[in-house]
UniProtKB/TrEMBL annotation:
Classification via Pfam families: OsmC
InterPro entries, sorted: KH_dom-like_a/b, OsmC/Ohr_fam, OsmC/Ohrsf
Segment forming the signal sequence: none
Name of the featured protein: OsmC family protein
Native organism: Methylophilus medardicus
Coiled coil: none
Length: 141
């Protein structure tokens, strides 16, 4: 895998993936940024959240679970001093589907956390990561 991060100005950057996608990253105004993009540490959490969500959705679909939505709500704590690394991360999945089996959802979350999600398994080496989930019935508003 290869990516490129190009400096734009100030503390603004454009990250480009080898698959041709781009994203703007920027620092906070108090650090010279213009607030035109995500902060790099936000992007790291989003990447981890997408990685683990990919696993959970895929595992549930393969288990023939009637999943219609999956949202990973992630809360992270950081060290007070530089480097302000993540010290704790909690991933809470809100999985929606009529008749979802809680045991299957729990299994999918556990498999992602312990076996499949490269991003969260890598981050677990640096900080505590916990997981939780809730199941919601779909609303037909």
């Amino acid at each position: 895998m290869q990516v490129k991060v190009k400096w734009v100005d100030g503390v603004s950057f454009v990250g480009e993936s080898e698959t041709g996608h781009a994203v703007v990253l920027d620092g906070a105004p108090e650090n010279g940024g213009r607030n035109i993009g995500m902060r790099p540490m936000e992007m790291l959490l989003i990447g981890m959240g997408a990685c683990t969500s990919f696993d959970v959705v895929t595992i549930l679909k393969k288990s023939r679970q009637p999943i219609v939505d999956c949202v990973a709500e992630i809360h992270a704590e950081r060290a007070d001093s530089v480097p302000k690394v993540f010290t704790k991360i909690h991933v809470h999945f809100v999985v929606t589907g009529e008749g979802l089996n809680a045991t299957q959802v729990e299994r999918a979350v556990k498999l992602s956390a312990e076996k499949y999600c490269s991003a969260s398994i890598m981050l677990q080496k640096a900080c505590e990561i916990t997981h939780g989930f809730e199941i919601k019935a779909p609303s037909f508003d």
